[in-house]
């Protein structure tokens, strides 16, 4: 299998480790109704169609348990802390009790029939198995084994379970069950949806990366070289097939087989590539995250749009009532008009997003032009503030151009107020470290973290950054 040499970071801060960003809220610790809720034993099951029969859903159980562990780590109330731990262990213990043993590997079955309504060919009779589930359950077992509240014997039990879960991700012999295959060009895949034929599958991107986080956890906990090598192979595959995941200036694709735009998964892709950057210290994955942010940015950004004096074009698009993307509406242009302002002005915006087939636009939410959209256009119309930040770890290298080309750099407060401007130029290209990228007053910018420009933001269009996405 192909390996490009990605190495695992061993000193990742606690907050950046897998699943710390998805804690289970206290209000959700004991759900008793809904499609997913607890049975009388505190086990998280799937109740399709609001029925009374619950089924095992390994991904749901693993994610609920991992969320409980994330909350356990930060909770200070002893009673709540105890219940978070009880809930996490309840899911792990049920998974262990209902495992299928094949050699050294433990497999964790889905208990219900499943047909994917969008992806043709994803059709299973129970029991069925998923590489995504295997990897997430691996994380659950490893993270439980690291909690000080457990006895040495309990820790050993969960770490042994992790050994067996990891064994399921090491084989590509295509027996049954199976979840790992090497494609015709030598790239290893963990299949969220393994196909009926050996070595076939949906080649789903997010499912593979979530599974990869389990391998990272296991390698960190055990020092396993086999896990480090497997992580390297999987990261190499993701880097190689990044151009097929990405859909420039649009929403990314869910899987390689169907290439269907993943409107509900695109922001997951952004966060997953950020975490790959943190776990490997490779700028390859940070660059991928940056491009995804620009292609189809998260639409939750609100604020104030600054309008420069002069003429502006406003638009109405066919969207959901909130202004969000709707597949049925399609963002079709309904109307446009020109307006003129004799002086600089401003208006509130309830949304910033890409309009399908167009650029980035703001939805004006009050005043004479409420319900109209204006295109992002520095410096004619832009949303004030700093938003959609991506944290780099380690810092990346920004290069200023040579040839004495002037570059303006900005100190900016949280509300977008520019407090200082410094213009620099260099006879030869000059480097500076950057710890993050964000949209700052309507433009992608990098924050400089050393030297005379510490704390200043430099427009991405004025400099270059240290890596393009890798293709191994």
Order of helices and strands: EEHHEEEEHHEEHHHHEEEEEEEEEEEEEE
Supply the helix-strand structural class.
Answer: alpha+beta
Overall pLDDT confidence: 96
Number of strands: 22
The CA-CA distance between the termini, in Å, is: 12 Å
Helix content: 25-40%
Q: Provide the low-confidence segments as ranges.
A: none
Rg value: 24 Å
| Number of H/I helices | 8
Task: Indicate the proportion of strand residues.
Answer: 15-25%
Give the overall form: globular
Largest sheet: 7 strands, antiparallel
Widest sheet: strand ordering: 11-10-14-13-12-9-15
Describe this structure in words.
- The chain has 472 residues and is of the alpha+beta class.
- 29% of the residues lie in helices and 24% in strands.
- The chain is built from eight helices and 22 strands.
- It has helices spanning 58-74, 78-97, 131-145, 152-167, 205-222, 225-245, 266-280, 283-295, and strands at residues 36-38, 44-46, 100-102, 105-107, 114-115, 123-124, 180-182, 188-190, 303-307, 310-317, 333-341, 345-354, 360-364, 373-375, 381-383, 386-400, 407-412, 418-424, 430-440, 443-448, 457-459, 464-465.
- A seven-stranded antiparallel beta sheet has the order 11-10-14-13-12-9-15, with no helix packed on it. Strands 21-20-19-16-22 form a five-stranded antiparallel beta sheet. Strands 1-2 form a two-stranded antiparallel sheet.
- Strand 17 and strand 18 (418-424) form a beta hairpin.
- Helix 5 packs parallel to helix 7.
- It is globular.
